[in-house]
Specification:
Keywords: Lipoprotein, Signal
Number of domains: 2
Radius of gyration: 24 Å
Organism: Thermoanaerobacterium thermosaccharolyticum
Number of strands: 19
Number of helices: 4
CATH architecture of the largest domain: Clam
CATH class of the largest domain: Mainly Beta
Strand order of the largest sheet: 6-5-4-3-2-1-11-10-9-8-7
Protein name: Outer membrane lipoprotein-sorting protein
Oligomer: single chain
Largest sheet: 11 strands, antiparallel
Helix content: 10-25%
Structural class: alpha+beta
CATH topology of the largest domain: outer membrane lipoprotein receptor (LolB), chain A
Length: 327
């Protein structure tokens, strides 16, 4: 009897252990999917360099598209200082104070190590990858393949909320911190003009340009852009028509489904992120559990987080019918 009880306890321990580890595995799978699907990005970046107990700080705007990149570096007063552009074959540097552009052949003068794309390359090529599930972030530690004694390995932190990069720390061969890069306002796969990565437009800073964050697409192309198969409700209130399907590239490539009845709107947003339910009231309807705050309803469909935003003309019962028809 004791042996049987011990066997049952062991099986339960293994089962619960598997349940605990599964979300972490799912999270790292989602991060890998985001990295594999990345074609372009933009981000505000703060950089700290640690050298001989001295710390040098500066900020920049990074833009990346298909192997080309653009770095716009700002001085301490947030004024444009210089622009570095790599067009796929050659690097150019524009100095705003003298209004001149030079060819830069010395790669050591370009802080390419700060690029998120540089981490992705090391991530894909690394034979060994260390993963850690922190309190607020998922961490991935990879060796720097073309590094040196000052840049030996790097640790990227991804937000648990939306899997976007939050910060990267680069360590030297002795494990001492060499650089810390913090990413803000990160956008996956925005539409970027090719001119941003050419010498001809190097003197115009992107903060004065209009970069589109929302992309309207055909339904059949949703998976190509997001890696997500969208879920459409089988029920929608009478006279509401699906008028637009778009990808919000500033919100982790979330899928937006817009239904209109005249000027009245129902919006359904589908994306993959960690939803903690804070600030929401948890409720149950039929076989599903959902969260509610004001006119926003949230349901987790096997890891796909679906938000339904209603208007005052749609009753709570009708919203619940929409939620139930999504499952």
């Amino acid at each position: 009897m004791k042996r049987l009880l011990l066997a049952l306890l062991l099986m339960m321990t293994i089962a619960f252990s598997g349940c605990i580890k599964k979300p972490q595995g799912d999270a790292f799978s989602n991060i890998k999917k985001s990295l594999d699907n990345l074609k372009s990005y933009t981000s505000d970046v703060d950089i700290e360099l640690h050298n001989n107990k001295n710390v040098k700080k500066y900020s920049m705007k990074q833009l990346y598209k298909d192997g080309k990149y653009r770095m716009e570096i700002y001085d301490e007063s947030d004024k444009p200082d210089k622009v570095i552009v790599f067009d796929g074959s050659r690097s150019y540097v524009y100095f705003s104070k003298v209004n001149q552009t030079f060819i830069e052949d010395n790669s050591e003068n370009i802080p390419a190590y700060s690029l998120f794309a540089s981490f992705i390359n090391n991530f894909k090529m690394a034979g060994e990858i260390k993963k850690e599930d922190g309190v607020e972030y998922y961490c991935i530690d990879v060796p720097i393949l073309e590094g040196n004694t000052f840049m030996y390995n790097e640790v990227m932190e991804f937000s648990k909320k939306d899997f976007k990069p939050s910060s990267m720390k680069i360590y030297d061969i002795n494990g001492e911190l060499f650089a810390e890069i913090r990413y803000k306002n990160f956008m996956y796969n925005p539409q970027l003009e090719d001119g941003l990565f050419s010498q001809s437009d190097i003197s115009t800073f992107s903060r004065y340009m209009n970069i589109q964050n929302d992309l309207s697409i055909d339904i059949k192309d949703v998976y190509k852009y997001t890696g997500i198969n969208p879920v459409f409700p089988e029920y929608i209130p009478e006279n509401y028509v699906l008028v637009n399907v778009s990808i919000d590239m500033s919100n982790n490539n979330a899928i937006n489904l817009t239904y209109l009845n005249g000027n009245d709107i129902i919006k359904i947003v589908e994306s993959v992120y960690t939803f903690d339910g804070k600030g929401f009231e948890k409720k149950k309807s039929g076989d599903i559990s959902y969260y509610k705050k004001d006119n926003q309803y949230v349901v987790d469909r096997n890891g796909l987080i679906i938000d339904v935003f209603s208007n005052e003309k749609v009753s709570p019962d009708e919203v619940l019918m929409i939620l139930n028809s999504l499952i």
